[in-house]
Design brief:
The protein has a single domain, classed as Translation Initiation Factor IF3 (2-Layer Sandwich), CATH 3.30.110. It is 31% helix and 36% strand. It has 2 helices and 4 strands. A 4-stranded mixed β-sheet has the order 1-2-4-3, with helices on one face. The protein is globular and about 30 Å long.
Length: 74
């Protein structure tokens, strides 16, 4: 199981979701991806994308205009 990070700071919707999708395509089942963003919309968009595509959101964090979503590739 690998753990990777995706910096999607300063990107606006839908780019954080698109970059997450592109990154996940290169990862293996069970790998962990930490996505760091500055667009608050990702707090709804990425979990919804995960549900549709069979990935699991492990944790969401938000602090001072920075939003982090940790997901497990399904």
């Amino acid at each position: 199981m690998a753990k990777e990070m995706l910096n999607a700071k300063r990107l606006l919707c839908p780019l954080p979701v698109i970059r997450t999708q592109d990154k996940v395509k290169k990862m293996n089942h069970g790998d962990i991806l930490e996505v760091v963003c500055t667009d608050p919309g990702v707090m709804q968009d990425i979990p919804a994308w995960c549900r549709i595509n069979g990935h699991k959101v492990l944790e969401t964090l938000s602090e001072e205009m920075e939003y982090t979503i940790i997901l497990e590739v399904g």
